[in-house]
Amino acid sequence: MKRVLLLAAGLALLSADAVAQQWPETPRRPVATYSIVARDPQTGQLGVAVQSHWFCVGCIVAWAEAGVGAVATQSFVEPSYGPNGLALMQKGMSAPDALVNLLAKDKGRAVRQVAFVDANGTAAVWTGAKDIEAAGNAVGKGADGTTSRQIPDTAQDGVVHVGKHYSVQANMMLNDRVWPAMAKAFEESKGDLAERMLAALEAAQAVGGDIRGKQSAALIVVSGKPAGRPWADRVFDLRVDDNPEPLKELRRLVTLNRAYNHMNAGDVAVEHKDNEGALREYASAEKLVPNHPEMMYWHAVALVNMGRVDDSLPLFRRVFQIDRNWVELTRRLPKSDLLPKDPKLIERITAEAK
User: Fold this and answer.
1) What is the spatial distance between Cα 160 and Cα 125, in angstroms, rounded to a whole number?
2) In what order do the strands lie in the sheet with 216-222?
3) What is the per-residue pLDDT across 16-34, written as a single tens digit (0 to 9) for each?
4) How far apart are CA 261 and CA 141, in angstroms?
5) Which of 244, 270, 298 delimits the end of a domain?
6) Which residues contact 300 (CB under 8 A, 6 or more apart)?
7) Tens-place pLDDT, residues 198-241
8) Structural domain containing residue 42
9) What is the CATH number of the domain that holds 48?
10) Torsion-angle region of residue 51: left (phi > 0), alpha (psi -120 to 50) or beta?
11) Which residues pair with 220 in a beta bridge?
């Protein structure tokens, strides 16, 4: 299943009714999961994060599109809630309306668990009446508190809960403390949207998590406003498909992703001749992941191109000590105009390998 950001161009042509007709009447295996969908009211960023004892949970559960919304679809999972829900919200439908629209067409809704959050921060979640216990959800309270909506003639199957800013949901959990712990952690934690969603996942695991254990996790954060280039809208897009400690690995990847975000920002600053801004970004990246050869190396290259060769040499030396292949790479860069075509300068740099 491709990520929604890679399918964005095709979503406009996708009919929710057509896909709904393809839904199987026989539910699939349950993807027991705890997840969160959320919007940061300060930045407008939208995100979804999930953990499960199921291989590659991020492949089917987590969906998000900049300026549109985020979706988590789980339990006896129907992946089409992801692209269909985003398509409806892209057309201007609110998260609750989009969710009710799709649930009404789904004969398997009693075993689904689905959550939407839209670009206005309205969250909606459904926990089917036949989801495997312990199963439940919680939504953020807005100025008017939380509300619920029933789908006509299907009240026995479940109810849509509506709130603000986020929804947490879980099924097949060890106990019923999981989703309240997630909500509390998300509301009380500090930091950006990725950090707060990670805190929610970690809180779920701390009180019991999935009754079967741990296997995979994923986290997506997209920008509040689309840039017109889907690849530029992804602030985080991370998956841990199979790991005995998926949340620990996901946190490590989030930290590494932050460092690369700083590196990318440094490169943009260089393009705009903002040398000091670039160096601040590179330094921030190295602070997050000390002694990472990739980051030290390109920082050193940037210093050379700024005319600060003496400052670059200690960085080159540390990189060359980690792997001498970087020495040969240095000799190749002038041909691509990434270092000056100055043989004496290149020799001075590569001499640091000695």
Assistant:
1) 5
2) 136-139, 166-170, 33-39, 46-52, 216-222, 234-240
3) 444 444 444 444 566 679 9
4) 32
5) 244
6) 312, 313, 315, 316, 319
7) 999 999 999 999 999 999 999 999 999 998 888 889 999 999 99
8) 4-244
9) 3.60.20.10
10) beta
11) 48, 237
Same domain, residue pair 287 and 232: no
CATH number, domain at 332?
A: 1.25.40.10
- Residue 32 pLDDT: 72
Q: Specify the number of domains making up the chain.
A: 2
Closest CA to 275 of 303, 298, 301: 303
pLDDT value for 210? 95
Report how far apart, in Å, the C-alpha atoms of 315 and of each of 234, 262, 286 are.
30, 18, 11
Torsion from C-alpha of 203, 205, 209, 211, nearest 10 degrees = -160
CA 20 – CA 289 distance, rounded (Å): 45
**Claim to verify: residue 270 and residue 221 sit in the same structural domain:** no
pLDDT number for residue 21 = 43
Distances (CA, A) of 179 to 30, 168, 185, 307, 320: 18, 6, 10, 55, 48
Return the axis-axis angle of helices 343-350 and 325-332, rounded to nearest 10°.
170
Angle (CA) 44 47 48, round 5°:
160
Shared domain for 100 and 207, answered yes or no, is yes
Show the tokens assigned to 56.
């590659």
- Determine the pLDDT at residue 148: 61
pLDDT of residue 16: 40
Residue 164 lies in a domain: yes
